[in-house]
Amino acid sequence: MQADDERWMRVALDAARDAALAGEVPVGAVIVRDDNALAVTANRTLRAHDATAHAETLAVRAACASARSWRLTGCTIYVTLEPCAMCAGALVLARIDRVVFGAWDEKAGMAGSVGDLLRHPRLNHRPEVRAGVLADECGSLLREFFRARRDADARENDTRLVDTPDASG
Predict the structure, then answer these.
(1) Which ranges constitute the DSSP H helices of the chain?
(2) Among residues 56, 82, 106, 144, which one is catalytic?
């Protein structure tokens, strides 16, 4: 199963890289049943002007449409970043059997970082969770994306300072 987890996480990483090229936060997700991808998605929050357009929610929607069912039993989701509360809730409601993620999200993760919605004892469905699959690669992609964004913001701010006319003049 570990080899399959890494193989499918690489598909999610490819989707995340595509998101980065489009200026989106590079998070990719794949939902798999019986060794077939039902959905391959990436973040689209900026392009869709939709705060809910995270890779996981888009994957759940696409997989439900493909499976022609709102229940995704027998499915595993591979996602490059630990799901947030919204996405964890969607995965529980969709009855996903397994959640496999790469990098931990210490600011918003709900599979053990900030909280653990996926395995909350009062919920009627609790998927199996496997964390840290290709974590270094997933985390590096995110760090490089945000470093490049900060560098671009800094260059833009420097340009504005140079182009601003001197008020004393």
Answers:
(1) 2-21, 45-48, 55-67, 85-93, 135-163
(2) 56
